[in-house]
Amino acid sequence: MDNIIEKYNQRARKINSLLCVGLDADYEKLPEKYKKLGGSEAQFQFNKDIIDATAEYVSAFKPNVAFYEARGLEGMEALKKTVDYLKEKYPDIFTILDAKRADIGNTNNGYVTSIFDYFGFDAVTVNPYLGKEAIIPFLERKDRCSIILAKTSNTGAGELQDLVLENKEILWENLLKKINTQWNKNNNLMAVIGGTSKDNVITARMIAPELTFLVPGIGAQGGEVKNILEKGKNSKGLGLIINSSRGIIFSQNPKEEARKLRDEINKYR
Ligand code: OMP
Question: 198: pLDDT confidence band, cut at 50, 70 and 90?
Fold first, then answer.
């Protein structure tokens, strides 16, 4: 594959889906039958069942590392088993570790090696507030994708991200311009744009006409698919990875919820 982002695009075209299921296997919320398995099997078997049930509708899976770190060693083992299972059984599905990583330059090498080489994820979410110079170890991995937080979905996102700069630009908009151009020399970047406000998606698409956006905030956080799709897709009808975690994995019928969300996304595409 020439470009890692093409892995996502190919899967999205092949199964006609922009859906990402967030594997946020919060141990406290796991049904008793999984907890009984103990050790790393509890979260892993839960994930395996979610993956097998929803894979036919899914172009990306995105575990959030927090739910695994919270379980210590057995959680990290469950995460490794999950990504190994995905690579073996569903190798064409795009895998994202939601870890929102970044540190000073050389420390990032540890994160890069862990996430891309030890675990083997295709992509990672990255916090940009240390600046480009610090996150170069992520950007330089041409074979992997870094998904940079631009405008997040949380209610307090604007406190810093909406600050107005001296040149009158909004901070996150200025950042997105950089992600789309200066930072993206290897064509391996995407940006996180929260789906809780349609204005964010509209503005982001004006700034970066073809860039792929990871859009969380659908379902449990209240974001609406119609708003996002109508203004958010790029010229190829792609450019969006629409994530839902709790709304699918802890529903009564994850397969049906995934199908419904895939269909709703396609209705407005
Ligand atoms: P649900 O609200 O359950 O669908 O989960 C959303 C997931 O996306 C969580 O793992 C969040 O950490 C993540 N997320 C956001 O909710 N908002 C953001 O702005 C960015 C992310 C992310 O980077 O994925």
Answer: confident
